[in-house]
Each structure stands twice: as structure tokens, then as C-alpha cells.
Design goal:
Helices cover 43% and strands 16% of the residues. It is built from 15 helices and 13 strands. The longest helix is centred in the C-terminal third of the chain and has 18 residues. It is globular. It binds ligand GMT.
């Protein structure tokens, strides 16, 4: 198949999923065309079968707000025509599904078919889509999509309930390449690599996010601060965003900044995750929780919040521990108890990897996307 993919190319879960999907589809022999305002950050541009088309956005003095969604629709229609795309797959409803709808109409007027699939990721539904100024057009473009997928049952049900969408929505979860996200099984090699951040007797915590308020990165520092009063430990924070300076300030204010490492945006998180003992994901809301899945594949369980689609990913007490939002004391106590009980932690580490492999591996989920595309093509 020839598939056009549009996503937000910067740091964010939907862009990661879209890019990894494109890479996996190309590896299966499909031709993949990314159409976006800049090259998705996990794409190195060298993969066979992957093409990137930039969307140029002109800015005239008259345009107080440059119309990116229109430029995107034009580019989608052009790329679809020149490269004979079978379908478009847009990630994050706003504004991508609206642009795809326009591109489909532009080509239909010339007798050419261009079905499009919309994948709902999270804040497009839970926050942005519920803004009154965006809701009507978002609902319309979801309803008019040729196929709609959601990354969790939670998000699917929320879309039906809050948006009144009546067309079928297929749940196709986030996935992880279990050969790229792997534990370091050689204990001596892992111990050696961990020395980069911690002394041999110290635990390593990791937090991975875009530091938006919804991620509650400051809670990650608070949880770590409580743990660090009881046992030697280090915290590694990966990513960047609006709450980073608040988290940095807190680490300094609490006098733990020498044990808290802000690494900023990192491309190869698969090399960092296996070094950790536990991932901290204290989010206000997660429609799925891709960071926790990537950690699980590396044998790293999560201390996380029981929100949104997280319970569909993490089996509380088996592959991680779940707490109410803001329960910093509970999360710190849970982490300390696990670290005190190495056989329980080891069992949880094994269960986390096994669950990632058996339920969320790219080899399982990506073929479901392909079958979904075939279904859409056969029915549109
Ligand atoms: O706000 C974010 O975390 C980014 C957002 C996105 O769409 O870029 O992430 C969402 O999509 C991820 C990939 O499907 C999910 O794993 C995240 O749980 C989801 N984030 C939220 O729902 C807050």
C-alpha cells in the first residue's frame, strides 16, 4: 500500500506512535509518505520506503494566524495525486482530520478517491477537542473519517460519550518494537552502564515526558525527594517542556539537585530506560501511557496514576503500581516497598516485559493497522 501519514512531528506521544508506525509499515514493504511541517524527530530520513514532504506555510502581513491547516490540505492532495496514495492516516484529530477531509474533497471533485483514517490520541479529545471553538469541527471531521481508531478503550468511550460520534471506532493500542526496546540482560553490562548516573548501591528512577502540566513532572520530583530521604537514589528526567523549570526549581529548593539529572530531549530513550529500576508517571491523565509501555519492554515497571487508559496497560500490583492523582506519599511508599523487596521487584520486572511482548509488541499491533486499512479501502 501507499500510505500518507500526518502527525505533529515534535516531541509528543502521537508523533512518536505515527513515526514508529511508518517505520514498521515501511519494513513490511509498504510505501510511507510523511506529510508535516517538519521532519518527525524519530525519523532519520534514511529508511527504505519512507518519504518526507514538508508543508510550506506562507506568512503574509495580512495573516495574523497563518492557515497551516489549509496549506496541509493542499499538500496532502498534491502528494496523494503525485505519489498515487491509497489512503491518508492522520494522527491527532485537530487540525489533521479537517485537512484530510478537505484533501479528500479536492480529489473527489476530480474523480479521484482518497479515504482517510483518523487516530485519536488523547488531548485532541480530552482537552483541545472539548474547547467550544474546536468541538463542532473536530466532531464533524471524526464523524466523516473513513475509519477511526483510538489508542485505548477509555478514549474510545470518552469520544462516543463527549462528542456524540456514532461511527464505529476501533481500539488499536500504542505499541513498542520489542527488539529495539529491550532490557540489558547481561547484569555486569547493566551495572557498568548504570554507573553513568548512580553508585552501585543507588536506585535509579526515570521520568519521560514532554513536561506539559498534564504530566505532573513536579510530582515526580516530589516522589523522588521522599524516596531519597529513606535510601540512596538518583532521578533521571528525559524530555523538555513548560514544567521543566518548575521541576528544576523544586529540585534545587529541596536540596536534591545533585541527585536529579535533567537530560532534555533525547532521541535514543531505548538506551536510557533499561538503566532504571522504576519509571515515575504521575500524570493527571493518560489516554494510554506510551512512556510506561516503552519502559515495560525494557523490564522497567512504573509507579503511575490510575487514570484514563493506564489500567488497560498496567496491571496494578503485577506489572506496576497505580495510585490516585497527587498521592505523592503513596507513590513514594510503594516505590520504597518494592525496592526493599528485590524478589517482588524482579517478578514485576519480568511480568512487565512479558506483558509488553505478549500484548503490545509492534509485530502484533502493526498488522492490525494494516488489516484496518484494508477494511477501510474495501468499504469506502
Ligand atoms: O499530551 C501528551 O502527552 C501528548 C499526546 C500526544 O498526542 O502527542 O500523548 C497522547 O498520545 C500518546 C500516544 O498515543 C499516549 O500514549 C498518551 O497517553 C497521550 N497523552 C495523554 O492522553 C495526556
Amino acid at each position: 500500500m501507499r500510505i500518507g501519514i500526518t502527525c505533529y512531528p515534535t516531541y509528543g506521544g502521537s508523533g512518536v506512535v505515527a513515526t514508529e508506525l511508518g517505520i514498521e509499515l515501511a519494513a513490511l514493504g509498504h510505501q510511507v509518505h510523511f506529510i508535516s511541517y517538519s521532519q518527525p524527530f524519530r525519523l532519520n530520513g534514511r529508511d527504505e520506503g519512507i518519504y518526507y514532504h514538508e508543508v510550506p506555510v506562507s506568512n503574509y502581513p495580512l495573516f495574523e494566524f497563518p492557515p497551516y491547516d489549509l496549506a496541509l490540505a493542499s499538500r496532502m492532495a498534491e502528494v496523494a495525486e503525485y505519489y498515487e496514495l491509497d489512503l491518508l492516516h492522520v494522527h491527532y484529530a485537530i487540525p489533521h482530520s479537517v485537512s484530510a477531509l478537505l484533501a479528500r474533497q479536492m480529489l473527489a471533485s476530480r474523480g479521484r478517491r482518497l479515504p482517510f483514517v483518523t487516530t485519536l490520541h488523547g488531548t485532541d479529545i480530552t482537552l483541545v477537542g472539548l474547547d467550544r471553538s474546536y468541538l463542532p469541527i473536530t466532531r464533524y471531521s471524526i464523524q466523516e473519517s473513513d475509519g477511526v481508531t483510538s489508542i485505548s478503550n477509555y478514549l474510545k468511550e470518552k469520544t462516543i460519550r463527549d462528542f456524540g460520534v456514532t461511527r464505529p471506532i476501533e481500539t488499536l493500542t500504542n505499541f513498542v518494537n520489542c527488539d529495539v526496546y529491550t532490557p540489558i540482560n547481561d547484569e555486569a553490562a547493566r551495572a557498568e552502564a548504570r554507573l553513568h548516573f548512580a553508585k552501585p548501591d543507588e536506585a535509579i528512577f526515570i521520568h519521560l515526558s514532554n513536561f506539559r502540566p498534564v504530566k505532573r513532572a513536579v510530582d515526580a520530583v516530589k516522589i523522588f525527594a521522599r524516596v531519597a530521604t529513606e535510601r540512596p537514589a538518583q532521578l533521571v528526567l528525559v524530555g523538555d517542556g513548560p514544567d521543566r523549570s518548575a521541576a528544576e526549581w523544586l529540585a534545587h529548593d529541596l536540596g536534591i539537585h545533585n541527585r536529579v539529572h535533567f537530560l532534555g530531549k533525547q532521541e535514543r530513550v531505548n538506551e536510557l530506560l533499561p538503566l532504571a529500576d522504576l519509571l515515575l508517571m504521575p500524570s493527571e491523565l493518560e489516554s494510554f501511557g506510551l512512556a510506561a509501555l516503552e519502559a515495560m519492554a525494557c523490564k522497567v515497571p512504573s509507579i503511575a496514576t490510575r487514570v484514563g487508559g493506564v489500567p488497560e496497560l498496567i496491571d496494578d500490583g503485577v506489572t506496576g503500581l497505580l495510585y490516585p492523582v497527587g498521592d505523592v506519599d503513596g507513590m513514594a511508599a510503594g516505590a520504597l516497598n518494592l525496592l526493599k523487596d528485590p524478589s517482588r521487584l524482579d517478578a514485576m520486572r519480568d511480568a512487565a516485559r512479558k506483558s509488553a511482548q505478549q500484548r503490545f509488541c509492534a509485530t502484533l499491533v502493526v498488522p492490525r493497522y494494516v488489516r484496518f486499512y484494508e477494511h477501510v479501502l474495501a468499504n469506502s
